[in-house]
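Example record for the data management plan.
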Amino acid sequence: MYALALAPALALALVLALVLAPGVRAAELVMYEQAGCVWCAKFNAEIAPAYAKTEAGERAPLRRVDIHEPIPADLADIPVERFTPTFVLVEDGTEIDRIRGYPGDEFFWHLLDTMLARLPESP
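Corresponding structural encoding:
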């Protein structure tokens, strides 16, 4: 009985350890954006609702960063442009590739596939 009560706590501890372990970071697609950006809004309407449900979204989850807010410490080595949106594929704190601007839904998926192909294969 005691073991059953302890199981959820152990499962939570394992998940937290995996998520917070240093050096264990998956790829992510960082979207640098700003309020009032028409092309950001277009991306939000055409791509964002489905992105997380796609294979690309699972491999590189979308992370949004407002260019007018402090840049997170883990992205300090990634150059920030003032042109928005800018999409930067990052893995382990290193930039893999970027898309400057939003080229429309069909071109976006094609460019993203090209970027994702540059990632090392998942173990």
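Summary line stored alongside the record: The first strand starts at residue 28 and ends at 33.
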